[in-house]
User: What shape does this take?
Amino acid sequence: MVYIKSSSEADKMRRAGKIVYGTFEALKPYVKAGVTTKELDTIAKEFILSQGAKPSFLNYNGFPASICASVNNVVIHGIPSSDKLKEGDIISLDIGAVIDGYHGDACRTFAVGNISDEAQKLIDVTKQSFYEGIKYARHGERLYTISAAIQEYVEKNGFSIVRNYCGHGIGKNLHEDPEIPNYGKAGHGIRLVKGMALAIEPMVNQGGFAINTLRDGWTVVTADGSLAAHYENTVLVTDGQPELLTDLQR
Ligand code: MG
Assistant: This one.
């Protein structure tokens, strides 16, 4: 069932989204060679708690940290650890926060120092694919028109879209209906309605779309060892432009 948010619920989601956005701002100066992903996790957790919110991911289905920190060939759900970032790495930081019962969820992929042109292209295409998708995140459009726009843009640029994981509705629950694949057929899927809140999150691999899960039960890696990037915002559907709840710059 897809929940339509009232304006007071949308306000609560704006608060959660603002905290997620602030967490990225707090983390940015620390994303560099030599920092451990555990240190990034601690900074994020302390910032979220300082805002009166809680990290949505901590203990979610048993996840052992406050953020997901996915380096290089890790697609999603990387567990923060004592491993240090190295010059030339890319890292996807996925952050969720819940306040007053409502969640915000977003992800960005960052460069660690100087990275290869190909890695930069992967980051840029992944981010832009999100923007290609949300052109259709409007009242009256069909859900899979978003999916198709993301897929088309990614594949046109020579990369592949992960199939096994999707975006999702969000609100009182971190994950709720609808499921939002990053591939599909335009003009299909449920009709979007003003007040839907969607976490749209293309996960893009440099090589093939196949993935594996490591023995820790969480870490999802590219099957071919190629790099992966991830971009996500929590988006509120309106009858005009979608509102990006986790990006205050737009
Ligand atoms: Mg998400």
Q: What stands out?
A: The chain has one domain: 7-244.
